[in-house]
Amino acid sequence: xxxxxxxxxxxxxxxxxxxxxxxxxxxxxxxxxxxxxxxxxxxxxxxxxxxxxxxxxxxxxxxxxxxxxxxxxxxxxxxxxxxxxxxxxxxxxxxxxxxxxxxxxxxxxxxxxxxxxxxxxxxxxxxxxxxxxxxxxxxxxxxxxxxxxxxxxxxxxxxxxxxxxxxxxxxxxxxxxxxxxxxxxxxxxxxxxxxxxxxxxxxxxxxxxxxxxxxxxxxxxxxxxxxxxxxxxxxxxxxxxxxxxxxxx
Length: 249
What we know:
Blueprint: H1 2-20, H2 27-42, H3 46-67, H4 77-116, H5 119-125, H6 130-167, H7 173-181, H8 186-212, H9 218-247
């Protein structure tokens, strides 16, 4: 029963995305909505990303220093491990899980509210491809801006570790800076950015799908938002494993 339901949902999702990926009727309108969505979904998320990343970077540096007690481990390994944790996992996967909660619920509730208030039906009556009109700008906005948020996260996460070195006696600043420079692999940055593009697509498309097919009233909009966040999070974790296997093997 669960398998059949999953296949049904996947089929509806594929049909929904086929409606989304069509040429917009008016490119000017699409571009205007695209800029609006970047501001609403992307730029408004920058403060959250910066605050979380600074604290995570600081915590990683502290925990690595407290747990690396072997005399065989060089002192700079604290900075090196903090850098790799932030680049490989936090700034792409964990950050996108957080964004799935913030942005995904926003998208699902917005489109779901339009569905229950019959605004989407009004667009269809006017001959507008509602899926394309509502979802495509959000999709492109997230795909283009989430990698920028990931870069913000990388920089502020490493800065959080620097603050620990600067204002505590846990480790020296010079040792930390040497550690984040040691054995640097540029591919880790590209790896994080590639993953963020996939995760951005998942967040935008899954949240839009659940919002678009809401039936009922305000209670169902809330359920759709919850389902969107849960489904997006599961898919992000699944694709995290797949992409790690493909890109880092």
